[in-house]
Every structure is written in structure tokens, then in C-alpha cells.
Design goal:
The protein is of the alpha+beta class and 286 residues long. The protein folds into 2 domains: 125 residues; 108 residues, no CATH class. Helices cover 30% and strands 23% of the residues. It contains 5 helices and 12 strands. Strands 2-3-4-6-7-8-9-12 form an 8-stranded antiparallel beta barrel. Helix 2 runs antiparallel to helix 4.
């Protein structure tokens, strides 16, 4: 049965900004249709003028048959196909022992392959939920990597006496980085950064007359850099190659492209929270 655990001997860790899951209340404003004259509320879309082509999300083929490591040196995952379905063919989680804080542990998940359920990321990326009850998590497919989000944070796998957090970027292993390609990779990141800035400016201009959506777009962009820094700070050789930052910035272009093509979706409760914050600010000024 999938999900059986094997504890290895002891040896001497976020959602992409803009990745808002769709809700039944959400409505889409057609890029070619006139904008409805009403206020945008939580779960609805901001303006999307077109025509804009939806950016192409990275294919699952970029991760099949590769060994992806969390932060380039930690937990390990491998993917394969069962017919047309994507599945996990190997999963090893690294973490800390529950019984001995500071002591490393590994959990080799048996019962392969593990099933993956496709989900809508609401951000243009391919998203899957992994069928592993002991530590369920969601992953977005990037170019040759995956970004894992685990809402419950670290998983306590008591049968293996191990606490592991799968959150973060799983990608190229530390040993696979080629020093000769460092400059090329850093240059690629600079180009993608330029695209992100251009797309953000365009998105801002399209929603400049809508205070609520405009504010959300600005906050989201402002939070991206700090979020990226948090995710990538522990990735192997990041200061030399910028691999993690490159992959997350590429994903950001997908998110912005999706918002340009289909409109900005506000998270549930955002409009209400923004109104409450504004009211509180006005009260303090009195």
C-alpha cells in the first residue's frame, strides 16, 4: 500500500505570489468585453484587456526521470509516468529526529508509485497534490524543478521518529552545477527580471483606476523579492549560480502573464480585509 514508511539510519523548509486557488464565487472578466461598472470584491477578477496570450507553463516532461533535491542537497524526489498520468516513483524526506533534537533522520517512502492529483493553481502553473497521508503536500511544476507548499508546515512522521518539512524548491543537485555555466545562469536571471518588471508595469497600468486591485498588485509584487529570498537562502551554491532565484522568477513571469491574460483574482476575504484596514487607518487619524 502506498505511503508505507522505511526509516533510514540516523546520520551524524511557501505559495508563489499570485497563485490564488479558484473559488466558486470567482468571476472572469473577458479580455475583449467591456469592464462591468461595479466594485471588485474578493474572489473576482480585475481588468484584463487583450488580446494577451496566456504564457505556456513548464511541462511535466522537464521533471520526469530526473532526481530533484530540496535546496539542492536534502530530500529527494523522482517522477515517472504511469500511462499518461504523472506519478512519484521515489520520495525520500530528510529531517530531524523527534526523540533527539538536532539529530538527522531520513524517511524513505515505500509503496511506490505515489499518485498525484491535478489541481488548478489559478496562476498558470501545473499543480499537483501528492497522495501521501503522513505528509501531504502540493507542488507546482517549474522548469526542471518543483516548488512545494505544505500548509501544515513540518510533518511529524512518528512511525519513523522524524520531523520533515518538504516546503521549498526541489531542483538541481549541488553536485550537478557546472562552474562554467554560472555566468550564463546569472545572465538568464537578469533577463527574466527585466520581463517581470515590464509585465508588472503593464499589469499596474491596466488596473490603475481600480484602487482595490491596484493595491493588491503592488503588494504582491513588493512581497515577491522577500519571499524569493526566504525560499532560496538555503539553496546550495545560490550565491554563485542564482539557480533557485532564476526558477522562481521564471514562475513569476507565468503568474503575471496569467493575470495579464485573464485578470487579477483577489483572494477570498481580501476586499473585506482591505476595507477594515482602511477604516482602522482613518480612525487613527481622527
Amino acid at each position: 500500500m502506498a505511503g508505507i514508511l522505511t526509516a533510514a539510519p540516523a546520520t551524524a523548509q511557501l505559495a508563489l505570489p499570485g497563485a490564488v486557488a479558484p473559488t466558486p464565487e470567482g468571476t472572469v472578466t473577458s479580455p475583449s468585453a467591456p469592464r462591468p461598472k461595479k466594485k471588485v470584491s474578493s474572489g473576482e477578477m480585475g481588468q484584463a484587456r487583450g488580446p494577451v496570450v496566456m504564457p505556456k507553463a513548464p511541462s511535466e516532461d522537464t521533471i520526469i526521470g530526473k532526481t530533484l533535491k530540496l535546496d539542492g542537497s536534502g530530500s529527494v524526489i523522482e517522477f515517472s509516468r504511469g500511462g499518461t498520468d504523472l506519478q512519484v516513483s521515489k520520495l525520500t524526506l530528510s529531517g530531524d529526529r523527534l526523540s533527539r533534537s538536532g539529530e538527522e533522520c531520513r524517511v524513505e517512502v515505500a509503496g511506490m508509485p505515489l499518485k498525484l492529483t491535478s489541481q488548478n493553481s489559478g496562476a498558470g502553473l501545473r499543480r499537483y497534490q501528492i497522495a501521501f497521508p503522513a505528509c501531504p503536500f502540493t507542488l507546482d511544476v517549474l522548469d526542471g524543478a518543483i516548488l512545494v507548499t505544505n500548509e501544515s508546515k513540518a510533518c511529524e512522521i512518528k512511525v519513523a521518529d522524524c520531523r520533515a518539512d518538504p516546503s521549498g524548491l526541489w531542483g538541481t543537485a549541488e553536485s550537478e552545477f557546472d562552474p562554467k555555466k554560472a555566468e550564463e545562469m546569472l545572465g538568464a536571471r537578469a533577463k527574466v527580471e527585466k520581463t517581470v518588471r515590464a509585465d508588472f508595469r503593464e499589469l499596474y497600468q491596466r488596473n490603475s483606476k481600480d484602487k482595490l486591485v491596484r493595491g493588491f498588485v503592488v503588494k504582491e509584487q513588493a512581497s515577491f523579492s522577500s519571499w524569493r529570498e526566504e525560499v532560496c537562502r538555503s539553496y546550495a551554491k545560490e550565491s554563485d549560480f542564482g539557480y533557485c532565484a532564476l526558477r522562481l522568477t521564471e514562475a513569476r513571469t507565468i503568474v503575471l502573464g496569467a493575470q495579464l491574460a485573464g485578470g487579477v483574482k483577489l483572494p477570498d476575504g481580501y476586499a473585506e480585509a482591505a476595507a477594515a484596514e482602511e477604516a482602522a487607518t482613518k480612525t487613527k487619524r481622527k
